[in-house]
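fyi for ur records
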Amino acid sequence: MQKWWRILAPLALGGIVLLFPVPQGLTIAAWRFLALFVAVVAALVFEPLPGAVVGLTGITVAVVTGIVDHRPGEAIRWALAGFSDGTVWLIFLAFMLALGYEKTGLGRRLALSIVKALGRKTIGLGYATALADLALAPFTPSNTARSAGTIYPVIRQLPGLYGSEPGESARKLGSYVMWNAFAGMCVSSSLFMTGMAPNILAVGMITRAAGFTITWTEWFMGFLPVGLLLAATLPLIIYKLYPPTVKRSEEVPKWAGRELEKLGRLSVREISMLLVAVLALGLWIFARDHITATAVALLAFSLMLLSRVVTWDDVLDNRPAWNALIWFATLVTMAGGLSRLNIIAWVGRTISGALAGLSVTMIMATLAVVFFFIHYMFASITAHTVALLPMFLAVGLAIPDFPVKPYAMLLAYTLGLMGVLTPYATGPAPVYYGSGFLSRRDFWGLGLIFGCIFIVVLLVIGMPYLMAIHG
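which gave:
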């Protein structure tokens, strides 16, 4: 029964849109596509089917009904356009880089090394997990693979060494460690363009909508003041607001040392992966005018295959990567349909008219706050990005002399941070919530508190900084 409800709800929402009269400024075809888009986004939220299936179904319906283009040849070209999008392939290749960290064990080794060095005190353990995530984030654009797949399995072993287990003893250490790792992952997801797949998707959407490109370095430098402040203070803030009762243990560094001994010396594959990662990061930063980010990722992937860091069978078995390829390709196509039928421009004109008379700063802040907290309605940052980012960008583009670049970057930076809000807000959230160390009440309460902290810091420090360098 529950599954049927999940199927019927998106169809009902799309049907409700169709019941309304077509607004002035839109064609009948555009209104029908908007209804289809609403149904697709709702299906991504309610999840009656995998996201890739939902996306494929959406573009198929648009093609066979001729909503986007009544010419069959042009319709199918539109439907398949997402599969030739460089941003989509960059996301796919990013999953392959994450696969290299997993298969070689380099990611686990790095996390254990940092824990061994800093894990003697509980506050040091908090900084250790944050540093481990930061070190992996530039090379792991799947925050689920990075945090839930690499960091979580390591830190899950730590609370038991302090006598902290899910339940009554959780607050001894486990609750602090889990929330620290989760909240820190949200910061690192915003700090690097390659820290989370929807970031890359957002950059592509911004380029198509506004006509300018945000490079890897521009993204990093634009968030750096906010990122540095949060990374430097977050473990301490959590330590004060959600304190552990155990403050120190000598066992954690010893355990991490034993685990590192089991791993032995760096293998050839680990060294190869490390060299590939350093090369990719260097090219992303210093060669951006000569080679695109997607081409760098393709080069890194080819080197990983040639050096057998990963095998072709590993690639074929990486179901999340292939799922992401189809999912993102179809969602990019659906979002493109909104522009193709002038829906985005219509939304932008409508909202910008309602904001007339407000100052530029007030408009930017208001839209960013709404964009951030509306994520309570979404179970996927990807769905949030596809559904709302083009429309919020259109508002800025419709306002004369509006600082579009700092505004677009401000919206993009909220994507990683908003993952902290709920137990379903981002991929790793259910993993940490399901650990048993964070009660339902604590998770929702902490999500609201740290969500407010994140958005306030972004607006108070990040927005003026962006205006100064890009305004």
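Residues 86-320 form one domain. thats all i got for now
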